Amino acid sequence: MTSIRVLAVASEIYPIIKTGGLADVTGALPAALMAHGVDMRTLLPGYPSVIRALPGADELLRWDEFFGGPVRVLGGARDGFDLLVLDAPHLFDRPGNPYVTPEGHDWPDNGLRFAALSRMAAEIGLGAIPSFVPDIVHAHDWQAGLAPAYLHYADRPRPGTVMTIHNMAYQGKFPYEMLSPFGLPPGSFNIHGVEYYGSISLLKAGLQFADRITTVSPTYAQEIQSDEGGMGFGGLLRERSGALSGILNGIDISVWNPESDPHIAYRFNADELAFRAANKAALQRQFNLDPSPDSLLLGVISRLSWQKGLDLLLENVPTILGEGMQLALLGSGDADLQDRYQAAARAHPGRIAAVIGYDEILAHLVQAGSDALVVPSRFEPCGLTQLCALRYGAVPIVARVGGLEDTVVDIGEADVSGNAATGFKFGPVTSDNLGAALRKANIAFHDHLTWRRLQRSGMTTDVSWRNRAGQYAALYRDIIVSRQV
């Protein structure tokens, strides 16, 4: 099998820098693709944490002037994958979150910062590093969206390009006046270029110019072609439907493995589900919930936002209390939702608990100790928490949207492959329908045999990257062949 060289371009990668599921995907794909003959290197911004992670990196490029200051491209290996780092202190040497100030506002120069990342990806794609000239440049989300555009406008032979949408809600919009600072030609500002309702959209640039567009589940690929689901890009995506496909995300099953997880109270597998009780007890202690083994313990690991439907779960607190259930929530986000969950926890100690923030170690315990994991999203490109939940025997209760639809088999149905039920789905996404799903799950929880069947079916579901990575490898090869014709 001929090796394919792929340059992935992303703004974060687990475990070095992470704010969300994008990092999990970019961190897991390189290793998964090795088995399919793909040599992937990932270009990252040189945030302080990234520079610290590569103390012995080699300098591969040095330019005195690049988007306002001197830059280097560093190369090195970390955690089993090869990295290229855009070391541009004037753009990325800032503490804290990679996208926002300590006060929570977008960095005012985010457009330039991520245009620089995309431009360097294009330069590498065009051969700036002779030791690694990629066959494919694979851009992830709006932060890398200009890479296909820069390559399109380069008057030179170029590699193939892929644009992956992880969430249509984030579109990277900047004023028209940034066209020249971005280094884009005047002719690019039109409906068939980077223009988007009088502004520049970095996501639109990637969708317009990439050879292929992927998103992170087949159902989401259909949803974003609608006017509502496309969030302004439905028409463009319908026009490019022949280039669009959905490839389900996977998770790193070596990190998320209840048989070897160092972060849980007691390790277990599908044949030893009785040992989950020790994790439930530990989770109840950690969250100051009543030590009640017979109460259905609902877990939530989520950003607190309208998209995630967490307001609908708050509206169902009377259902949770009335049905004798418990709730353990881990997450942060909208200040109003944070305040309301903390108020619910104060009003109902021992029954409702909320830890505001994100803790990777605690997230493992929530998966191992919850009886069910609730994901009531209004839209969800793929979702990773429900995949982890399946792996850990926490039965998912999810909305019928996006990747949630594709990865959970409802208790009332078998999927087209005849796979057994693994959880509960509800739709349309309303408070009443979520409440009905919670009540249905509570009834099933008290039927020991039914619940064990759901858990075992979930734990034996393949949620790894093994087969899904192969779909990316096939896509890369198809692009290469089509460009040779």
Rg (C-alpha, Å): 23 Å
Roughly how many Å apart are the termini?
A: 20 Å
Read across the widest sheet, the strand sequence of neighbours is 3-4-5-2-1-6-7-11-12
Largest sheet: 9 strands, mixed
Contiguous helical run count: 18
CATH topology of the largest domain: Rossmann fold
CATH class of the largest domain: Alpha Beta
Report helical residue fraction. Answer: 25-40%
Low-confidence stretches: none
Outline type: globular
- What count of domains describes the coordinates? 2
CATH architecture of the largest domain: 3-Layer(aba) Sandwich
In the CATH hierarchy, what is the superfamily of the largest domain? Answer: Glycogen Phosphorylase B
